[in-house]
Q: What sequence folds into this?
């Protein structure tokens, strides 16, 4: 049975890419249809798998400034051909759900209704490091993209949401029902490793919307030791802002990420995320999370048991929480036990069972039931 996977951009490693890795563990012979692929920025993790790249991948700016190609992305994703496949599974944060499958079963795992179209348009454009005329052009094209996105949301046969938070927004913006399957955590990789050390840890893409600046400012004021992992367009500015108690690690391997999670007194999570795999990875390493009280963190962090919340997305609110935070009150085994509920094997079993059920339902009348 031939499976096609669809993913927007393989030019970073984040939660969506973790999900794609899990899809490929379920269906290693699947072909990944991707708009833009950058081997270096994904550490070669996807190199061994079959891929079909869109026409955008070879265009100027595709690998350095892929957002310049935003107006072409609906056209590019609609050009993928699935004639030779039986099932299409889109791993969607924006454009992937808009593929045209021409009657083939299409299941969309939705990380979020397209944020820059439905909830964060102004913030998204303002935060981009582009000249004013480019931002003006982006604002002009957004109404077209929003209409296309709504139309594209009708194409999947089924939606799977990564959280109850996202399930509500799929219903609100797209009028579609969905089931919830929480994102996967590799609890075998992310396990307690080494002794606790005297620092806090944050890991993220370093982009304005990730709110790393508020963490830097809070730790600047308190003088507490902080390690920051990740890279992005805001890295240079934040490095200049940070004081000597803050260390930037850049992009790090999963093995070092496990070490930092395990050693840290707490993992800081300042963004309002749709689900958020990293807080679960930290908890899998037995480390409590200090998170902004919003979004998917409310579904994955158990207050006073596996972590704590701050209620305003400001340096002052985070400072107040840090001043009262006591790492000694947390039981690291209990924290890890909570994370085991999100183990990737559970995710894979649920996804595989759902797709098989729907595929067998499509084929049942023809007597062609089988395993994917």
A:
């Amino acid at each position: 049975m031939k499976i096609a996977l669809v993913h927007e951009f393989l030019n970073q490693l984040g939660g969506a890419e973790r999900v794609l890795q899990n899809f490929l563990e379920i269906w290693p012979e699947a072909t990944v249809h991707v708009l833009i692929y950058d081997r270096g920025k994904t550490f070669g993790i996807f190199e061994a798998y079959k891929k079909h790249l869109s026409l955008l991948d070879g265009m100027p700016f595709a690998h350095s400034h892929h957002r310049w190609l935003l107006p072409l992305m609906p056209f590019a994703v609609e050009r993928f051909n699935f004639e030779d496949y039986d099932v299409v599974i889109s791993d969607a944060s924006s454009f992937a759900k808009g593929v045209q499958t021409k009657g083939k079963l299409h299941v969309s795992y939705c990380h979020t209704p397209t944020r820059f179209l439905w909830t964060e348009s102004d913030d998204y454009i303002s935060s981009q490091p582009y000249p004013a005329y480019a931002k003006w052009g982006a604002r002009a094209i957004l109404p077209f993209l929003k209409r296309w996105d709504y139309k594209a949301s009708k194409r999947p046969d089924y939606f799977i949401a990564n959280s109850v938070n996202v399930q509500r927004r799929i219903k609100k913006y797209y009028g579609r029902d969905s089931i919830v399957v929480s994102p996967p955590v590799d609890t075998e990789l992310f396990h307690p490793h080494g002794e606790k050390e005297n620092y806090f840890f944050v890991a993220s893409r370093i982009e304005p919307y990730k709110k790393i600046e508020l963490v830097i400012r809070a730790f600047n004021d308190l003088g507490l030791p902080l390690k920051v992992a990740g890279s992005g367009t805001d890295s240079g500015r934040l490095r200049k802002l940070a004081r000597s108690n803050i260390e930037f690690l850049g992009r790090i391997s999963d093995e070092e990420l496990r070490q930092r999670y395990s050693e840290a007194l707490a993992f800081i999570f300042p963004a309002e995320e749709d689900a958020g795999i990293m807080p679960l990875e930290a908890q899998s390493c037995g480390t409590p999370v200090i998170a902004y009280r919003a979004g998917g963190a409310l579904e994955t962090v158990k207050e006073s048991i596996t972590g704590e919340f701050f209620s305003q997305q400001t340096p002052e609110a985070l400072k107040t929480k840090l001043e009262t935070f006591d790492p000694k009150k947390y039981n690291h085994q209990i924290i890890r036990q909570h994370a085991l509920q999100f183990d990737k094997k559970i995710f894979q079993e649920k996804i595989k069972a759902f797709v098989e059920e729907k595929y067998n339902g499509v084929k049942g009348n023809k007597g062609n039931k089988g395993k994917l």
Observations:
- The first strand starts at residue 3 and ends at 10.
- The two ends are 6 Å apart (CA to CA).
